[in-house]
Write a structure and sequence with these properties.
Length: 144
């Protein structure tokens, strides 16, 4: 059985679970309270490379009773920092993260703008055929 492992993040406690649904790595970062309650998650899944570099699709969620407290932004920031740290240890220093957010979801847009990029590109979801905004950020070594 998979198990969440505690990370060394600035915003604690944050935990990570790595699994491989359909053979593709997925990293789930969670804020878990002392009583075991999950109050926010950020998920990074490998998708098609971007400009020849690894790319991760970002998703995030907060249970309704914990919304409007800044938890999504905090868990995403902590997840991205831990993800960058972990991949640097694996000698992967440069990669992309993208978040595709519904054009009708201003709250998720605010999270993506605060954590990924404040300059999204408008597009259309190829499966649902609905308007979306794509936020992209390139992670590089410090000074890179």
């Amino acid at each position: 059985m998979a198990k969440f492992l505690r990370c060394d993040a600035n915003w604690t406690p944050i935990y990570v679970l790595v699994d491989e649904p359909a053979g593709t790595p997925r990293f789930t970062y969670a804020r878990i309270e002392e009583d075991g309650t999950v109050t926010a998650i950020a998920i990074l899944a490998i998708v098609e490379p971007m400009e020849g570099l690894p790319c991760f699709q970002l998703g995030y969620a907060v249970p309704e009773q914990y919304r409007n407290q800044g938890r999504a932004k905090k868990v995403v920031k902590a997840a991205l920092a831990e993800h960058q740290h972990g991949f640097a240890n694996a000698n992967v220093h440069t990669f992309y993260v993208e978040a595709v957010v519904g054009a009708d979801n201003p709250i998720s847009q605010a999270v993506a703008a605060a954590t990924i990029s404040d300059q999204p590109e408008a597009g259309s979801d190829k499966f649902a055929e609905v308007p979306v905004l794509q936020y992209v950020r390139k992670f590089e070594p410090a000074g890179g």
